[in-house]
Design brief:
This is Putative circularly permuted ATP-grasp superfamily protein. The chain is of the alpha+beta class. The protein has three domains: about 290 residues, no CATH class; about 100 residues, Rossmann fold; about 60 residues, 2-Layer Sandwich (Dna Ligase, domain 1), CATH 3.30.1490.270. About 30% of the residues lie in helices and about 20% in strands. The chain contains 14 helices and 21 strands. Strand 16 and strand 17 form a beta hairpin. It is globular and about 65 Å long.
Length: about 475
């Protein structure tokens, strides 16, 4: 499987692609020791500011830093414009789909999506049925995972619309590059990402409930310091200038949410929640949850507080629903998808299951509700025992899995222990949807599989990150 190289193009092309010409010259003329020193400085920078993430079940989880690659990924402005249009279309359709699922249900009656995939979906919230949310927006913050396979072909790999993470790394990666390589940075005209916090704050303010003040009170709800993404929660709260709260800091009185402060109780209008649905309110969901706020759902359903993202958005994270996105986009927008899906076999369908079982060693198999690179099989890299284990899982619960071809994800130059070498990458752009429209951050988070030949870019599986540059053509 030969991958498209984003610096050199198709195999055998013999020339550097235009966006990378300046970078290639810099790589060829800069001593390797300089890269090693800068990489060490980057690691020290990230340690000093405390950028960490946790892998549950590991003793050293709280000390882990996501590896940062010092060689940026570069996209031309025209390439980005195509992606941006596709992202706007897709997130628009996702919001229309969710509003319809919890409202009129036209897409179900029209046979666009099977009813059982909605109503039996782990992400479906019956409490949201027949309820409306401000501006019919369910997905205020989306992280859409995109892969590239050749010069002109980008595909959506996953939709992350529950509590998408990673934007803090996008912002810190940019700051690190500006500090460590000012001469390289200044030689390119690079679209900025540092205004993301202002854009996010404006989005959150725009979706406040009716009757909220012109400057609504916003809080970021975190599960606490032991959560894998706690650094990002505290980072964003600081950048937004809002309070970082845990469930114990909030109280609901007469269906209104208040926050405890040194001056007493203060009403909260918008909660940017980084807690999954089932932990939000022990009176409405998991009774033993100590992370949420008793009565929060009553306040939410009464229209007295906005939760971002909305409760019940997990349906659209489901990988089986993902496979229907082309039809969903056509149904709700009347347009053909601008960004394609990866071909997907729904194992709940007997013919698809038979094909997948016969070709397991060639395919990538994923749990429909899985995330973080867990619960998946990469057939070409799997052992016979692993393939056999997944075969048993598929036969036992086929509806819990989808399968996709093993894509040759594009590669970018990466500084590794042996020097500069190509490594596979994906891209997670971040899309904001508010009352004033949709905004797409120019670039997003590039994740890189640091292990040679690996296609798994997730940080929990040994992946790292890169700064993503959108430059003028």
């Amino acid at each position: 499987m030969v991958a498209f190289d984003e610096m050199y193009g198709a195999p055998g092309a013999g020339s550097t692609r235009a966006p990378y010409e300046s970078l290639q010259h810099w790589l060829e003329t800069t001593p390797r020791e300089h890269f090693a020193v800068r990489r060490s400085q980057a690691e020290l920078f990230f340690r000093r500011i405390g950028i960490t993430f946790s892998v549950y079940g590991e003793a050293e989880a709280n000390e882990r830093i996501i590896p940062f690659d010092i060689i940026p990924r570069i996209l031309r402005r025209t390439e980005w414009s195509t992606l941006e249009q596709g992202l706007r279309q897709r997130v628009t359709a996702l919001n229309m789909f969710l509003a319809d699922v919890y409202g009129a249900g036209e897409c179900i009656r029209a046979g666009i999506v099977p009813a059982e995939l909605i109503y039996k979906n782990a992400g479906y919230s019956s409490k949201m049925a027949g309820r409306s949310v401000p501006h019919d927006l369910y997905v205020h913050i989306a992280g859409i995972d995109i892969v590239r396979v050749d010069e002109d072909s980008f595909y959506v790999l996953e939709d992350n619309v529950r509590t998408p993470s990673g934007v803090s790394y996008m912002l810190e990666n940019r700051e690190a590059m500006m500090r460590l390589f000012p001469e390289l940075f200044s030689s390119h005209r690079i679209a900025p990402v540092e205004d993301y916090p202002e854009a996010l704050l404006a989005t959150l303010q725009s979706v406040a409930p009716n009757g909220a003040p012109a400057s609504p009170t916003i809080a970021l709800l975190t599960p606490g310091q032991y959560n894998s993404a706690f650094y990002e929660h505290s980072f964003l709260a600081d950048k937004l200038g809002v309070e970082l709260v845990e469930g114990r800091d909030l109280i609901v009185l007469d269906d209104v949410v208040y926050m405890s402060t040194t001056q007493g109780l203060r009403r909260v209008d918008v909660i940017y929640r980084r807690i999954d649905d089932e932990y939000l309110d022990p009176l409405a969901f998991k009774e033993d949850s100590v992370l949420g706020v008793p009565g929060l759902m009553d306040a939410y359903l009464a229209g007295n507080v906005t939760l971002t993202n909305a409760v019940g958005t997990g349906i659209a994270d489901d990988k089986a629903i993902y496979s229907y996105m082309p039809e969903i986009i056509r149904f709700f927008t009347g347009e053909d998808p601008l960004l394609g899906n990866v071909p997907t076999w729904r194992c709940r369908e007997p013919e698809a299951l038979a094909y997948v079982l016969e070709h397991l060693h060639e395919l990538v198999v994923k749990e429909v509700n899985g995330s973080g690179g867990y619960g998946m099989l990469v057939g070409p890299a799997a052992t016979k025992a692993e393939v056999d284990q997944f075969r048993r899982k598929l036969k036992h619960a086929p509806g819990q899995f989808i399968a996709q071809p093993t894509l040759a994800l594009s590669t970018c130059p990466t500084f590794v222990s042996s020097g500069i070498a190509p490594r596979h990458v994906d891209l997670r752009p971040f899309v904001l949807s508010g009352a004033d429209g949709i905004q797409v951050v120019p670039g997003g988070l590039t994740r890189v599989a640091l292990k040679e030949a690996s296609l798994v870019v997730n940080s929990s599986q040994g992946g790292g990150t890169k700064d993503t540059w959108i430059i003028d053509d």
